[in-house]
Design a protein that fits this description.
The protein is mainly alpha-helical and 416 residues long. The chain is built from 16 helices and 4 strands. A 4-stranded mixed β-sheet has the order 1-2-4-3.
């Protein structure tokens, strides 16, 4: 197995990636610790010191787990690439059959299964130790195992045909295979957006129509005022797995749903729920979801075009521990190393996302009471034990939403 200059580039990028992640974690930990003894003034009337300190301890506990995950996942990445793990797995599958496609499909599927098994201890710890300690976990062992089984079956039903189609196009469509693969992936993504609300989400959760008639009237009036049409307003049994509250929109075209976690409805007044919904409607009004999809599709096209170049470069394979270049190893290598190189542009995408959040907040303030949105946000930060004092740089790299203080200050200024 021969290494080259790209091996050195990859190692330097990986080292920079790991050091930056751990440094940002330390900054976040310090920022939380520095504010541990006092609640920020703008929240002191709504959040007690005990609640504030619970959020700090929860944040620090998650950071500690993430420290281990960063180091462990980096070691796994190096083992798969420079350590020869992918090369070994590729030779195992190539020795099973001479078919051009089956070894590639088997290679990718087995890698996905192995990766899931490797992550399993962290998933168990997060749910049954970390989340349990802070009172958020509601998941039973039976639910956890059932989820794993359902995810595996979905991976077989959906993943196998998709992987086969991608590898077939990579081998059959010539120099510009990546354009055809992009069309398939884009079509698949749109299909999943459409199918998720009605066919996939119900596999894991129960959805029932909102039965609070007074709240439903408020929501219907809000939808009418803003010109939004949906396939219905549903309540999801989020309490089956966690006490964290949330709300979201899902679907595209006419197959759109508004979904509230039951845990969110339990802790909010009707006018606060209306304000949260107005914020989500703001994203649709400003076409944020469409813009995000177009951006994602554009980035995926550029990424596939780059892979179209790299797949013909022996140094790409040899520099990452693969001695026999192939379409399936190129695809996996690209997917494994891209997070290392793309991490450093995360602040750009997060800044755009935060701009969208401000726009959605402004929309909500125009169609509902801004004070109700502020009140609902404070409750969400409090009930989800979200830190009120994140480090600025950590937030720039990790947070798609503005920090609590900045967001609420923006809402109050908008109100004035």
């Amino acid at each position: 197995m021969e290494f080259n200059i790209f091996t050195l580039v990859f190692l330097i990028a990986t080292l920079a990636y790991v050091i930056t992640l751990l440094w940002l974690n330390l900054r976040q930990d310090k920022a939380v610790a520095n504010s541990f003894t006092s609640v920020p003034a703008e929240f002191s009337e709504k959040i007690t010191l005990e609640q504030h300190q619970k959020a700090a301890e929860y944040t620090q506990a998650k950071l500690l787990v993430n420290h281990f995950e960063v180091i462990f996942s980096t070691l796994v990445l190096l083992a798969w690439t420079l350590g020869g793990g992918l090369n070994w797995l590729d030779h195992v599958w190539m020795g099973i059959t001479d078919n051009a496609l089956y070894p590639g499909v088997g290679f990718i599927m087995s890698l996905m299964i192995i990766a899931s098994v490797i992550d399993l201890p962290f998933s168990i710890y997060r749910s049954f130790v970390l989340e349990q300690k802070f009172g958020f976990n509601k998941m039973t062992a039976s639910t956890f195992i059932n989820d794993l089984f359902k995810e595996f079956i979905l991976m077989l039903i959906i993943g196998l045909p998709l992987i086969y189609a991608i590898l077939y196009l990579m081998g059959a469509m010539g120099e510009y295979w990546w354009a055809y693969v992009w069309l398939v992936l884009t079509s698949f993504s749109l299909l999943m957006f459409w199918a998720y609300p009605s066919y996939i989400a119900p596999i894991f959760n129960k959805f029932k129509p909102l039965d609070n008639l007074e709240l439903k009237d408020k929501i219907d009036n809000l939808l009418a005022r803003t010109g939004f049409k949906s396939d219905g307003v549903f309540v999801m049994d989020g309490s089956k797995r966690s006490s964290h509250g949330n709300a979201y929109f899902t679907g595209i075209g006419k197959n759109k749903r508004i979904v509230f976690f039951d845990t969110l409805l339990d802790g909010m007044d009707d006018q606060e729920v209306e304000a949260i919904l107005a914020h989500e409607l703001g994203h649709f009004h400003h076409k944020h979801i469409r813009k995000h999809m177009i951006t994602s599709f554009g980035i995926s096209l550029l990424g596939l075009a780059l892979l179209g170049y790299l797949i013909n470069q022996p140094w790409f394979f040899h520099g990452l521990g693969i001695d026999t270049p192939s379409n399936h190893t190129a695809l996996i290598l690209f997917m494994l190393i891209m997070p290392v190189f793309s991490f450093f542009i995360a602040p750009i995408s997060n800044a755009l996302s935060r701009k969208h959040e401000f726009e959605a907040d402004s929309f909500a303030a125009k169609h509902t009471n801004a004070d109700d949105l502020v009140s609902s946000l404070v409750k969400l930060y409090r009930d989800n034990a979200s830190t009120l004092t994140p480090d600025r740089l950590y937030s720039a790299f990790h947070d798609s939403h503005p920090s609590a203080s900045i967001r609420i200050a923006h809402l109050k200024a908008n109100e004035g």
